[in-house]
Amino acid sequence: MTAAMNIRQTAQSIGLAVFAFLLRCFLWIVNILWYIIREIVCGVFRMVINVMVFIIFLIAIFGFFLWLLTL
User: CA 32 → CA 41, 49, 68, distances in Å?
Assistant: First the structure.
């Protein structure tokens, strides 16, 4: 009975170690994918903000030139 209990306990320990390893691998992959998605989203927001600033800059320059022509 003791040998069977030891084998069962060893099998449970090995199973738990394998499960913990697989869980860590899964979380590692999810973390990498989350980082990639986050960088893409931040890059898109950065581009949108830069385009908006550029459009406002063009409007301001155009308005400034029109103001200079009216002097």
Answer: 14, 26, 53
